[in-house]
Fold:
Amino acid sequence: MKKPLTAILTLLVLSSALFAAAPHYDKGSQLFSFKVGTTLPTFTYFFGSKDLKGGLGEGKTGMQVGGYGGISYQVFNTPYTAIGGEIGYNFNFAVDKELFTAVPFYAKYSYLPLQGKWEIPISTGLGFAYIKYKDAQLMTLYTNLEVGVTWYPGEHWGVALNTGLWLIPEFNYNDAPKKDNALAGFVPITVSVTYRQ
Amino acid sequence: MKRTLTCILTITTLLTLLFTSCNADASAGLFKQLADAKKPVEIRYRQIIGKDDTDLYFLTNDGIYKTDGTTIRGNKKGHPVYEAYIDKSPATHYIIYLINDGGTAKVYRFDPSGNPDPEMTFGTSLVEPKIKHLLPNGKVVVQGKKSGKNAFAIIEHNYTYDTSDISKEVLFEDLDGYGLDSILFMSGKQQDPAEFIISFVTSGGSYKHYYTEGTTAKTYELTLNKNKNLAGFWTNGTSLYLITKDGNLYGSDITDVPTGPTHMKDLSRQFPSNAFVYGMSSGGTTYLITKTKTANEALFVVSFADDTITPPVNTKVISTGYASQMSNVNIVSAFEKSAGNLLIATEKNGMFDITITDAATGEGSSAGPEDYTL
Structure:
């Protein structure tokens, strides 16, 4: 698992060095994105029991492939980096047919080493997510790392394919659920439409 | 800019604390509940009706079935069967069922010949009677008027001849402002013509509970000093134990008139309506094996010395052995094959066959779902 991730990151860093010569953006340029796609519940790690449940379905994370939709806005603070935020809605049906939902809203920092007709945005996010499943609901922390490939056929509009990893911790302060504190990971696979100016 | 940032951070922190505190209501961790979630089976049980010499009869969301695969009565559109009873008194057993027909509950006797099922007519001393429930022991609860006041009656009926024995009618009178809250049977023994507790409640939350003794159908009013919403009970004929929805355990000696049960312990658990409460005694200790609202706790065992109604009371969560498949299920009905051997029907997860060897430790076995023997 670690090796492919390292290879991808190395490739991205090398490509950034290769293509970083001609920035398309100026400080103050903006990106608006609409994103839809699917999320794959990947693992849940329980801190108390040190139990790692990986994969979809019963006896694993208990969740199935879900869906995600979100909007984001970012403004460039340097020609290669942008800051902004994203809010979205995610759902996954559990194996018992009940719905797990997450509403992440977070600050986003992106680095675009390759710019122009083709772009490779690498983003990291940090914020909160409201999560709910049956009678359990809480506001918790949320963080992610995403990478995408965007194609701009024209000057302003582009389409992108994105993936990455979301991390959602669950910290309970009440005695009964405290022993179940956990960290859940999801892999999103999304397409987005971006307007840049 | 700094002030705006401070405002945003403060609001976000407050929102975080607000929603985090909401999770205090949850019985288990959110991701733990997800990881423990079980696939529903196709059968959605509502009630184990009873057993004849060879087969079990059960009610599902689709109708009444028998374990040999026979559909006794499939649900008709808009007229699902809500409650059913097997009358084993005649050689050819009758299946009796209740449906809602345009807002009116009606009870029918299933006719296997294919002729229309005859509707049962119940005799009662109440005026303007309306059927409310068909109990799993065959008795029928009706609501009406007695001396101009709201009243309820429990009627014993002969389904062969469609006649009611008014002399055996149990009346609950002078109940203006009260509606029916619950009718509780002992888990595993709903099908027997046994003890039950009927509770009435006002819109303001005042309760009246009546314990009806099994043999002579004598009825006693129970007065609980607090927490009056009952979830389940168990009796061995000498002592009566009650558990409220908010987890308080009461005990009462029923060799005399059991009017004021004694508070024994706050169990620190929430219980659903008609909670699973199965009692058994071993080595001088009584065990109440229960299912709480804590979803990922399998079974919750309450224990105390036989026939005592005072502390100490011990509690323990059992997750292995006979309880190994009882987490994240909603028990709707149970059938006691023999002492310690139970069929447990769940709402979405099928039927389990459990054998309790040692209630205290979890020793025993659990088969299923849908892998049970009769």
